[in-house]
Every structure is written in C-alpha cells, then in structure tokens.
Amino acid sequence: MTETINKFEQLIESALEYLSQSSEDEMSRKVSVEKWSKKEILGHLIDSGINNLQRFTEIQFEEKPYKIRTYKQNELVKANNYQNTKTKEIVEFWLSINNRIQRVMNLQTKNTLNYKVELEKNNISDLRFLMKDYVNHLEHHLNQIME
Q1: Does the reported pTM lie above 0.90?
Q2: How far is the CA of 58 from the CAs of 25, 30, 115, 126, in angstroms?
Q3: What is the rounded average pLDDT of the residues 14-38?
Q4: What is the b/e burial string over 35-74, where b = at least 16 CB atoms within 10 angstroms of the residue's CB?
Q5: What distance, in Å, lies between the first and last C-alpha atoms of the chain?
C-alpha cells in the first residue's frame, strides 16, 4: 500500500503545480458541448473523492462484503455546476478531500485492507483494490487535465 500512497502524493503534488499555473480560461475551455472542461474533470474528481471517502470509511463498520453503490457522474458534474465555479474553489475542495483520503489510507492495516468489497453481483474484491483503483482513476483524469 506504501507504493500506492506514494504515487497518490506525487499525483497531488504535480497536479497542484500544474493547476496553480493554469488560467481560468484554460480550465473552462470545452472542446465540445458533450466533453467536460478541465474544471469539470476536476469537479468529477471531487465527486469521486467524496464517494470513495465514504466507501473507505463505511467499510470499517458496515457488514462485509461491503456493497459498492454507484453514482451518476455526469449528473453530479452538472448539478454541482463546476463549469461556472471559480477554479480556485474547485482546486481547494479537491485538495481538501484528497488530503482526507490520504489520511484514511494511512490508517489502514493489513487486516482492514483485506476487508471484502462487492463491486457488483458476484464480483468480490477488497479495500486494497478499491484504494489502488481510486489512485489509478485519479491519475487517468489528471493526465487528461495536464495533457
């Protein structure tokens, strides 16, 4: 898990460096109506962070296997109106939620990382997978923002 946490920290650091130098125009630009702007991608990462923080903490006390509830990512991006929100506010919220997630990741033990998770019917994994998957998902979208 140390490798995942180190990767997570590096992703946050490099993204913050990039975001601190990005203009409001660059972050708001949309290549098409159907595609998210960089601001909306970052907003999606906030929504992902909120949902995953809840998963990472609830699994500590809920019945196992912990059942993953999906969320409507497009609807959340629209409902939160990230496109018309100042980039600074989005970045601060994104950083805050990920700082909390990092703290929760650091609290895990070999035992808790093995807690069983039901990703979908008859597809069982564990908390370790869920946390690694969160970091990989974050990396994918940060690459989109920073390309």
Answers
A1: yes
A2: 38, 36, 11, 13
A3: 95
A4: ebbbbbbbbbbbbbbbbbbebbeebeeeeebbebeeeeee
A5: 27
